[in-house]
Write a structure and sequence with these properties.
Blueprint lengths: L8 H5 L14 E4 L2 E5 L1 H8 L9 H10 L6 H15 L9 H21 L7 H15 L3 H44 L8 H4 L3 H17 L4 H5 L22 H21 L4 H21 L2 H11 L2 H4 L2 H4 L5 H9 L3 H19 L4 H4 L5 H14 L9 E2 H17 L10 H9 L5 H11 L5 H13 L4 H8 L32
Antiparallel strand pairs: 1-2, 2-3
Helix pairs in contact: 3-20, 4-6, 5-6, 5-7, 6-7, 9-12, 11-12, 11-13, 11-22, 12-13, 19-20, 22-23
């Protein structure tokens, strides 16, 4: 499980022992010395340190992760503060200084683990208020503890600031991409580049994709996996635990990146006028996908395969006939969904083992196929009840859920070892990509419809998009052809040359 470092050597020496055994409290049930269930109140009590007890760190992580399905984080913090202050008699102005000195390091350690591992909880002002009230009481009159509290608060503020800056950066990136798409629709000639003109080295492209993946992974916090369920517990309040809390959007942004990369791959393949160029783009992406696999970047790998398997791309049989597909077949086999993605899971275990024993940062990289990770956690949550028949929390379920999330927490902390290429990153994040309909139009312009279903779809799309957005784009690039969207009665097909300078002369 994720673990934070001890506060300081001085605090540990003052009586804090992080290896003390757990005590078995009333309302908690164990099997083979493993906590399997308990009432919510008993679990909260089990979280709070005492004079001779500190909770196991795996318990802290598991309970703080899962408790939000039953109680709002700020309510949990309020209860923890109350137990610390009242149960341990810290609210008494005459409290024994020696008692505070023994308890303060443990409580501060708990708060530090909470603020470092579940930082996003503290975007809630009520959380920050409770945190400051408790730490002020603990550090009152002790310079050492004041320094520790100050450092903890500063680290938390920096992390929340980084989150806000990341969210602002995402907004700017999305705005830039939207603006470029608007420009493309209005003035197609304004954008005349393709990916191979930006980068034709598969290894470099795979490295830049890994930069984006690791940056977006690093901003996903564990509580976002639970918030994604957004489902109230029927035995608790009718109000969702997240309804009045500002939610982090890092997980959602990461899923959107996968979709964008898939559509970008399909766009780059469908965009070229000539079959030879389309085949070259296909082979480039196959090489990029292979490099992603070698790096351990399974998310980009699957996004590329997904893009190449989209119908507008897969139907380009003449183009595929020009591609050496042996490497692609191997990659598809690795990511084959049969057997619940058995081949991929085997490769992931191998990458994880390599990461654990790695000497270099490059070998530590493990970027999972994220949608499958979310699916696994979702079905784990749906497959077992949160409550036992007696109303107790099913903690055995949450041990397993925490195990899955904690493994992700290790992967997301890896720093990307590759040098950034700003031009490539900017292109990947902001270049306009075709919609599904536009991809089909481009695909039909590349290789005409082969059956009645495709012909009907092509006709309907041409009615919706007169003239074809693809035609606008390619004509602006000086493509040597006459397109059927502009010249439906012309016998000259795309890629065969249209004479007269080669560009479409229709008034768009």
């Amino acid at each position: 499980m994720p673990q934070t470092s001890p506060l300081t050597g001085m605090l540990v020496s003052s009586g804090y022992n992080q290896n003390q055994n757990q005590t078995k409290e009333e309302g908690l049930y164990y099997h083979d010395n493993t906590l399997v269930s308990g009432s919510l109140e008993a679990l909260i009590h089990h979280l709070v340190p005492s004079m001779d007890y500190y909770p196991d760190r795996t318990y802290i992580f598991t309970f703080l992760l899962s408790s939000r399905l039953f109680i709002h984080p700020y309510e949990l913090m309020s209860k923890v503060c109350h137990l610390c202050m009242e149960q341990q008699r810290l609210s008494d102005p005459q409290a024994d200084k020696m008692r505070i000195r023994k308890l303060a390091p443990k409580i501060l350690q708990l708060l530090q683990e909470w603020t470092e591992t579940f930082s996003y909880d503290f975007r809630d002002e009520r959380m920050m208020r409770s945190l400051k009230e408790l730490t002020q009481r603990l550090s009152s009159g002790d310079e050492l503890y004041r320094k520790v509290v100050h450092q903890m608060i500063q680290v938390l503020i920096r992390k929340l600031t980084t989150l806000s800056q990341y969210e602002e950066a995402l907004v700017k990136i999305n705005a830039t991409a939207t603006d470029r798409l608007t420009v493309l629709k209005a003035k197609p000639q304004a954008i005349q580049r393709d990916m191979l003109s930006i980068c034709n080295d598969p290894f470099t492209m795979a490295q830049q994709l890994t930069h984006i993946e690791l940056e977006r992974l690093s901003n996903i916090e564990p509580e976002e996996f639970i918030q994604a369920f957004e489902k109230k517990d029927l035995l608790d309040n009718d109000k969702s635990c997240f309804s009045d809390q500002k939610k982090a959007s890092s997980l959602e942004a990461y899923v959107q990146w996968f979709n964008r990369l898939s559509f970008l791959v399909a766009t780059e393949i469908c965009m070229p006028v000539k079959k030879k160029q389309r085949a070259r783009v296909m082979e480039f992406f196959i090489d990029v996908a292979r490099e992603c696999f070698n790096i351990g970047n399974f998310n980009s790998l699957m996004a590329i395969i997904s893009g190449m398997n989209m119908s507008p791309v897969s139907r380009l049989k003449k183009t595929w006939s020009k591609v050496k597909t042996d490497k692609f077949d191997i990659l598809e086999h690795q990511m084959d969904p049969s057997g619940n993605f058995y081949n991929y899971r085997t490769a992931l275990r191998g990458a994880t083992q390599r990461s654990r024993t790695a000497n270099s940062t490059r070998e530590k990289i493990v970027i999972p196929f994220f949608s499958l990770l979310i699916k696994d956690i979702y079905f784990l949550n749906e497959g077992c009840s949160n409550r036992m028949q007696n109303g107790h929390v099913n903690f055995e379920k949450f041990w397993e859920m925490a195990k899955r999330v904690s493994e992700f927490m290790v992967w997301k902390k890896v720093e990307c070892p590759f040098e950034k290429d700003r031009k490539i990153l900017q292109y990947l994040l902001t270049v306009p990509v075709f919609s599904e309909d536009t991809l089909y139009l481009a695909s039909y312009e590349s290789e005409g419809p082969e059956n009645h279903m495709e012909k009907d779809r092509w006709k309907s799309l041409r009615c919706v998009y007169p003239p074809s957005p693809w035609c606008l784009y390619v004509c602006s690039l000086g493509g040597s052809y006459i397109c059927h969207s502009c010249h439906p009665h012309s016998s000259t097909k795309r890629g065969e040359g249209g004479g007269g300078g080669g560009t479409c002369s229709s008034a768009h």
